Amino acid sequence: MLNSALIGAAAAVLYLISSIVLGVRLARGGAEIPRDKTTPLGLGLGALVLHGILLYQIVMTSAGVNLGFFNSFSLVAWLIALLLLLTALGKPVENLGILILPLAGLTVVLVLLFPSNRILSPSTPIGLETHIVTSIIAYSVLSIAAVQALLLAVQERQLRNRRPGGFIRALPPLQTMETLLFQMIWLGFVLLGIALLTGLLFIEDMFAQRLAHKTVLSIAAWGVFGILLWGRHRFGWRGRIAIRWTLGGIVALMLAYFGSKLVLELILGIPAGA
Is the pTM of this model over 0.85? Predict the structure, then answer.
């Protein structure tokens, strides 16, 4: 456990330092920001590796995969950070790390402080495993989209108020930010659709009492993102409309997954559905 604690502490510190470096670059604004992403992304990658090692030690047990509440929370955060760093190699999204990386570090601390157990047996059917994996990836992608929407909201507000200071000059153009946002939403929408379909096919009763709220909220979130994408295609929705729909969808999705796990596992002590 000492090794796990040291690994977790190192990961949390590297996540924090990486976000601080990104924050300093952003605060300086415009031409003063170095174009080289090597330092913050390198620090983030180091944190990601250590975080991954910690998760492997805690999640992969001899009895099966442990997807307890805080383990799942940290796994999703790890995947979000991974997707962010990979995307940042080719697209100007690294500033999302200012919010995402400290959150990932926080989940590392929570995993160490509050061990949780929800064992997924090695005999779990492949269809159910597909449902779980696609669900986690969908939550991760759409969470990044939500952070992107928040950053877009700040950017749009400052532009509307005609205060394009260093913060705004440090971000990509508004159109580029919106394009990236909808690319993330499209990917998350497809993955969430696959997760819902595999759930309907391989979970015996997705509308059972313990799963009904999760299923309904997940379908509602999928519908919200679907309407947003339709509105974008049909009416050219953008700006505040896109931001509000994106945040509404992710709130429903997070309530569906983490809300249900929080109530069932931590409050009622009942193993939640996958």
Answer: no
